[in-house]
Every structure is written in C-alpha cells, then in structure tokens.
Specification:
Blueprint (H helix, E strand, L loop, with lengths): L3 E7 L5 H18 L17 E7 L2 E9 L8 E8 L8 H16 L5 E6 L3 H5 L4 E2 L4 E3 L2 E8 L2
Parallel strand pairs: 4-5
Antiparallel strand pairs: 1-2, 2-3, 3-4, 5-8, 6-8, 7-8
Length: 152
C-alpha cells in the first residue's frame, strides 16, 4: 500500500514544477471536468502569506487546497481551490485534506476564523468541520455556492 506525503508550502517555497503541477490539477478539475471556462489563475496564489497544501501518493499530486492570507482577506483565513484527483475521490482523502487544512490554519493564524465558498451540495460535508452557512446560495460559474465560516 502506498503512503501519502503531505506538504504545506508558503508560496515562496513553491518551485516552478510544483506550481505548474498544482495549476494543472486545478485546471483539469475546475475548468475541464466541471466545464467552467474561466481564468483559473486569479492572482491570489503568490500574495502575502498564502500557502498551498499538497498531498502526493507515489510522487503524484492527488490532492490540493489553498490557504489565503487573512491579512488580505478581511481578517479570515480562506480555504479555497479544494481538489482531489478523480482517481482518489471516494477514498476519504478529502476529509484528511480538510483536517490538515484546519490544523495548518490554527498553527499559522491562531484565533482567526476560517471561511470558504463551498459548492452548495457540499454544505453538509463542510458542516462536519464546524462550518456554518453565512450567505445565501449564489451562482459562481453557473454552479451553486454558499459562503461558510468556521468560528474559533
């Protein structure tokens, strides 16, 4: 059985190959699979204290999310771009990714609330981690989303 390697890297720690790999994964899922033609690189990846949580299996990137700097996001850490490769979905890896993200947020920004924009059908999923809806459902790229916050 193969093991997972976890890395939470400040954006300054990303090498070119890793940045390319994570952008390719995000584009594969969010643009190609979900058929949402938008500019996936939104200018947030390399700002402030933004960090990138990556999980590899057998040296292949299988999961990822981004943690946006609370100083740039109105005092909240923002979890975004949560993605698991198609091959790894249903394995529980997404739960482990979210657990790690919350630990990273607490270590890097203690006492700071955490926000995420969830696809609306995943509201219960994120609710398991203490997130509560704080907005109405809205459309983003023709997909229903809802803003959710986890208080500290």
């Amino acid at each position: 059985m193969s093991s997972f390697a976890w890395h939470c890297l400040h954006h300054r720690e990303l090498d070119t190959a890793t940045l390319y790999e994570l952008l390719a994964l995000r584009t594969q899922v969010f643009v190609v699979e979900q058929r949402c033609p938008y500019l996936e690189t939104d200018g947030q990846d390399l700002l402030g204290d933004t960090c990138h949580l990556l999980v590899r299996q057998d040296d292949v990137l299988v999961g990822y999310l981004r943690l946006l700097d609370p100083q740039r996001m109105g005092g909240e850490a923002v979890i975004g771009r949560v993605v698991i490769t198609e091959a790894a979905r249903g394995s529980g890896l997404g739960h482990r990714l979210m657990e790690r993200a919350l630990v990273e947020c607490q270590q890097r920004w203690p006492g700071v609330p955490v926000y995420l924009s969830a696809q609306a059908h995943l509201q219960g999923y994120y609710g398991r981690y203490g997130f509560q809806a704080v907005t109405e459902v809205y459309l983003e790229d023709d997909i229903a989303h809802i803003g959710m916050r986890r208080a500290v």
